[in-house]
């Protein structure tokens, strides 16, 4: 059906611009919604011209040919996902984090023309949207995407590589003390108390804690494969003897009333199906962190701290290592449980709990 002919007084109005009582409004060509353009005819026409150029597909043959040749950043992301990402053989947790970042970049930049992505444009995007470690991770992924695109002939330059490479920030989080641990514990649900005790005794990372099953307990030993250090061979395959303390924690877990295969489990408010979960009672690492933070923030002394300084569930691992050393266990014993390839890394965790004695040296000589 042909568009209705405009009246003589409105014949000079741009397409989709309408006048009523001296007031102009623009009709969105895709949604049909009207948007006010004010009462200045000249300004309303100028705005409508710009909107039409952006919102109405061009039928110009030349522009169609040029547009077909242009590569969108979303094209690079799509091919990276299908052609390159699977070859990296990332661990499940690392793959999940990489996918999350790819989703963010796809959401923000998929419609950007690669040839128009300058160093300034990428630098502004990073500065305006990310900080600290998030900046470092996203910048690294952007740089890898452009390198991949270059190997496929989709781009000629790597603007991300020329942006500012920031150093990792100093850790701001306060170490988790035993007093704070006990205070948080008092506010935790029963399943979270099991998780906290399990973490404190075994010194495992949250992903390995959440993956541990009752079937992993065989012949009086808990068998764990540490995902992060699996590439280091035997050091990542732990056969932990179940002592009295650990046995008591596992017994409490079994008495939850939930028939779950996982040592750390809970009854959620709503049971949802998820590809990342094999049982409805399973606790994901993100959920463990979130629920620990909720209990933590009920402790007034901790809640007064800036969020960046409040200890996370990961700090239980460092506290446990410190308590083992205080109890007289060797550095090598703690290193083995933590799955570190070097003692230096173990000390990086445990040295944060050293308490310095304040004294003076005022001898006059």
From TrEMBL:
PROSITE patterns: TYR_RECOMBINASE
SUPFAM superfamilies membership: DNA breaking-rejoining enzymes (SSF56349), DNA-binding domain (SSF54171)
Gene Ontology MF: a single term: DNA binding
Domain Tyr recombinase: residue ranges: 171-365
Sorted UniProt keywords: DNA integration, DNA recombination, DNA-binding
Flavoprotein recorded as keyword: no
Superkingdom: Bacteria
Single GO biological process annotation from the record: DNA recombination
Pfam family name, one: Arm-DNA-bind_1
Region (Disordered): 1-29
Entry-linked InterPro entries: DNA-bd_dom_sf, DNA_brk_join_enz, Integrase-like_cat_sf, Integrase_catalytic, Integrase_lambda-typ_DNA-bd_N, Integrase_recombinase_N
Signal peptide annotation: none
Family indicated by similarity: Belongs to the 'phage' integrase family.
Stated name of the protein: Site-specific recombinase XerD
């Amino acid at each position: 059906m042909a568009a209705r002919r405009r009246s003589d007084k409105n014949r000079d109005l741009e397409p989709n611009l309408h006048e009523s009582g001296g007031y102009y409004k623009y009709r969105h060509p895709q949604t049909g919604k009207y948007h006010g353009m004010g009462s200045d005819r000249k300004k309303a026409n100028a705005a409508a011209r710009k909107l039409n150029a952006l919102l109405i597909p061009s039928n110009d043959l030349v522009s169609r040919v040029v547009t077909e040749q242009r590569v969108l950043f979303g094209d690079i992301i799509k091919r990276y996902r299908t052609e390159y990402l699977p070859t990296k053989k990332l661990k499940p947790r690392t793959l999940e984090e990489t996918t999350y970042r790819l989703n963010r970049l796809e959401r923000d930049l998929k419609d950007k023309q690669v040839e128009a992505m300058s160093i300034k444009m990428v630098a502004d995007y990073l500065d305006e949207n990310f900080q600290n470690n998030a900046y470092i991770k996203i910048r690294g992924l952007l740089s890898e995407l452009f390198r991949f695109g270059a190997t496929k002939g989709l781009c000629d330059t790597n603007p991300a590589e020329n942006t500012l490479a920031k150093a990792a920030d100093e850790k701001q989080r306060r170490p988790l003390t035993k007093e704070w641990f006990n205070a948080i514990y008092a506010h935790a649900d029963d399943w979270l108390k099991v998780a906290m005790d399990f973490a404190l005794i075994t010194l495992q990372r949250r992903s390995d804690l959440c993956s541990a099953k009752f079937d992993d307990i065989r012949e009086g030993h808990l068998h764990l494969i540490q995902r992060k250090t699996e590439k280091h061979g035997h050091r990542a395959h732990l056969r932990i003897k179940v002592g009295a303390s650990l046995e008591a924690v596992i017994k409490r877990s079994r008495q939850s009333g939930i028939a779950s295969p996982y040592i750390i489990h809970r009854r959620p408010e709503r049971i949802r199906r998820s590809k990342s979960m094999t049982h409805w009672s399973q606790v994901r690492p993100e959920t463990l962190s979130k629920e620990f933070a909720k209990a933590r923030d009920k402790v007034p002394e901790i809640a007064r701290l800036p969020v960046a300084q409040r200890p996370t569930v990961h700090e239980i691992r460092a506290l446990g290592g410190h308590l083992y050393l205080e109890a007289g266990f060797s550095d090598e014993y703690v290193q083995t449980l933590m799955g570190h390839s070097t003692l230096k890394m173990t000390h990086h965790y445990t040295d944060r709990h050293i308490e310095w004695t304040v004294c003076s040296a005022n001898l006059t000589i």
